[in-house]
Amino acid sequence: MRIKCPLCGERDLREFTYRGAALPRPAPDAPDEAWDAYLHLRDNPAGPTRDLWHHRAGCSAWLVVRRDTATHEIFGVELATRSRAVRA
Amino acid sequence: MRYSGFKVLVQGLTGNRGWAPVWRTPDPRPAYDIVIIGGGGHGLSTAFYLAKTHGLRNIAVLEKGYLGGGNIGRNTTIVRADYSLPGNSEFYSHSLKLWEGLERELNFNVMHSQRGVIRLFHSDGQRDHYVFAGNAIANRGDGAELLDQDGLRRLVPYLDYDNARFPILGGLLHRRGGTARHDAVAWGYARGADGLGVDLVQNCEVTGIDIRNGAVTGVQTGRGPIRARKVAIVVAGRSSQVAAMAGLRLPIESHVLQAFVTEGLKPVVNHVISFGMGHFYISQSDKGGLVFGGDLDFYASYAQRGNLARQEQVMEAAMTLMPMIGKARVLRSWGGIMDMTPDGSPIIDKTPVDGLFLNAGWCYGGFKAVPASGEAFAHLIATGRPHPVARRFRLDRFRSGHLIDEEGAGSQHNLH
Questions:
Q1: What is the pTM of this model?
Q2: Where does B197-329 show beta strands of DSSP type E?
Q3: ipTM
Q4: How many CB pairs under 8 A join A and B?
Q5: What is the pLDDT of residue B414?
Q6: A73 CB within 8 Å of a chain B CB
Q7: Domain co-membership, B391 together with B286
Q8: Of A33, B88, B169, B238, whose CB count within 10 A is highest?
Q9: Residues B162 and B268 in one domain
């Protein structure tokens, strides 16, 4: 698998660290249920998904990668700071 | 048919013409008391103990493919009880006791071999940790011995003890650990459950779970609807998809774990050995292949095939631990889908839906758990109460903070 970092271009998988599903973060005072869901519960699809990756051995940017968990195909990569996926 | 050495001898002398099919292939009936979704190791053992221990008969196991075609046939066959934390510790200890009587219980040769599991340590800090771990194992009565380098060299002379980066200082030996023939475990439980009247229905994919007024009433399948008073989900690898049919969102993320096997070799690795620097473990199958594996690929995947980056890391670990392995040729590699929970420990619990039970989240440690998992899940389904050795495997423990985090890695799916 190779991931195309918006800042560095296409790079080897080994430069990246996977964090988990890209989900909007609840407000600090959100109820327990919201935080439990955010931290632990997952749709865990066998198909298209969005997840967070850290370009650890590159520019250190956090990325939202759209990809397929069944085929490892990557549809798109964007900077997490510009992604709607992680915004509440 | 009861198996015995005498039967094998007689059949061998008469052309093996007298063996009957090991289990029936029934069509599903319109209704059962209990429907178990998933005909893998855990589902089959659950069915067996429901029938054997609790005397229940009106049970079906629904399997979308063939019996034992999932992770029970894809693992590295290691059986051990070397956990430290309450929750895991008593559960795996109980499972090991069941393993030790399993062949007699099932009248089936699962080739359980207590060849010993050795965890290597490479630093003073790691040795201290293994003293702690060894005491925890010994206190449960499961046997652990700390070996210094000389003691270890006598058992396994072929390791690279003087490796400049990762010298081997000694190991923790768990003699009652070992391996078993993974497929035979599924077959043995399937045969046992079938013999007690359980219907094992293959090629029967569950496509929906029927719920009325908050209680389960049955399942929809590729072979028609089946009514049931109780439904049990035992489909590790696909837990999120099946649970979603009942509107549940689970604390599970699916990851790939790879395994590798070499061509058949003469006996050389007599134990299960795990390298303490970088995750790597190896044993030798009875056919002679060296069976080994390492870490997860560490990102969510259902691909059932691994990544080259992990393969390279596993091979490097193998060469660092035992350079002689460089002469062996890898025959094949494969990947299994692991239900990863946030703390690395499983779930055996009721769900918010009445009559719907969940057995999931086995991470990469489900094989050794098969006997106790089935027994504990059967107990829960039959009595409505958790089995004493599995009462901490709760579905709500992540929210309540009662984690069973064996590695102390933190509450995140991909850290275990």
A1: 0.96
A2: 199-201, 206-212, 215-221, 226-233, 253-264, 272-275, 280-284, 289-300
A3: 0.95
A4: 71
A5: 85
A6: no
A7: no
A8: B88
A9: yes
On whether residue B147 sits in a domain, the answer given is: yes
Condensed to tens digits (0 to 9), the pLDDT of residues A8-62 reads: 999 999 999 999 999 999 999 999 999 999 999 999 999 999 999 999 999 999 9
Beta strands in A28-80 (DSSP E): 48-54, 62-68, 74-79
Specify the higher pLDDT residue, A84 or B224. Answer: B224
Q: What is the pLDDT of residues B357-394, one digit of tens each?
A: 999 999 999 999 999 999 999 999 999 999 999 999 99
Compute the residue count for chain B.
416
At position B406, the amino acid (one-letter code) is: E
Which residue range is the domain that position B218 belongs to?
A: 21-78+182-251+343-415
- In chain A, what are the domains? 2-82 (3.30.2270.10)
Tokens (6 digits) for B183: 């497929």
State whether B120 and B149 are in the same domain: yes
- Contact between chains at B250 and A19 (C-beta distance less than 8 A): no
The tokens for B36 are 């178990």
Last residue of a domain, one of B301, B317, B340: B340
Report the alpha-carbon distance of residue B211 to residue B244 in Å, rounded: 12
